[in-house]
Amino acid sequence: MKFDCIIIGGGISGLTAGIRCVKEGLHTAIISSGMSALHFSSGSIDVLGYLNNKVVYKPFEAIDTLTGTIAQHPYTKCGKPLIIEALQFFKQECETQNLYLYDNENLNHFHVTALGTLKPTYFSQRSVFNEDVYNRFKKMKKIVIINFEGYRDFHPQLAAAQLSKHALFANCEIVAKSIEMPQLQDLTKHPHEFRSIDIARIFEDKENVYTIADAIRLAAEGADFVVIPAFMGIHNFNEIHNMMQSRTRLLIYEVPTLPPSILGLRIDNALKSRFARLGGVYIAGDKVVRADYNNDVVQAVYTANHPENPLEAKFYILSTGSFFSGGMVSEFNNMYEPVFKLKLYYEPERSKWYSPQFFYSNSHPFLEYGVVTDENLRPYDSKDNIIQNVYCSGAILAHYNPIREGCGSGVAISTAYKAANQIISLYKLMR
Length: 431
Hints:
By secondary structure, the protein is α/β, with parallel strands linked by helices. Helices cover 32% and strands 21% of the residues. It has helices spanning 12-23, 59-69, 74-78, 80-95, 131-137, 156-164, 196-203, 206-219, 237-248, 262-277, 402-405, 408-430; strands at residues 2-8, 28-32, 50-51, 54-55, 101-102, 109-112, 118-121, 124-125, 142-148, 173-179, 225-229, 251-255, 281-284, 288-294, 297-303, 311-318, 329-330, 335-336, 344-345, 370-371, 390-392.
């Protein structure tokens, strides 16, 4: 099979690059081995949440500082104008699938985590941040945090205790409650075995929504905010959210849960649907295992399921992620990139890969390890030669720390957009 562009990795970065390429007329394929980090994400888009261990309120001003000091950072290679353009592109493409992302007019806002902590982010879904949430937040007096009896992956008492410690909630009553969900009793699983995706499917039935909304209204009487785990549907979430708020006459706020994350699944579904509707080819459940080269140009790649059948393309984007998703592999005293055997940045001595304390304020060094690229995101091979028709994007890149900097999805989107733009420009010159 022959394509103009093959993207290896079906996460947020690979899908963003794929949508960008296919919109410009490139015959594009994405090869995905399975679930991406979106299934474990908060469902919000972090651009830059922290710098020098301080919370960032103005991310684009902070990006100027960051790029002025870290020459190899992916944001430096992208540049602020492209980062802004990439984020708007991503937002607009999500909106075509009725997934609306809200920002705070170029400022970060905060979303509540399942543990009751506050985390800075840039884009959030409507049930997490919008103008109504912003306005009501200023004058709220009572928050009710609700769980559904039998669901073990959310602990409202813990979230309430943590939130009440924050200065923003000093004058706010925070109450934790649980409600019954009779629908769970009618299903074959034991209620304690349910995960978020099982309950989200229950919300897809309108009659269930009304029943649950009535129970929430009774439990949350007098509340300004009602916080629930992110269950309000995977596909019809806008309609369900409207129904819930209309029925309860309360502001319903979703917090991300333990995996699978419904908020992350919504983004995953939206991007995959958009890519498919534009004519992209999505190859699921397969893994690229090797490549053929002609000097410094990749000719074809081969997958685990079809080891004898080459997949050829003019260009390739490597978006396989970090260690978590198999984009990089670590051995006892070695690290390597398994597809193209690219040059990696990492400390050879294993003891320097991690910090002695697990919850160390400066995070762990291995989070900054990854593929070394030039300013155009083209990687180097083990002999320091640039691979001419391969580009890298997302978590596989070196020289940034997505946890310490709070920039994982922002880097994923921006570098995907830049890599796709590079390919599109060259593709047009070749025609």
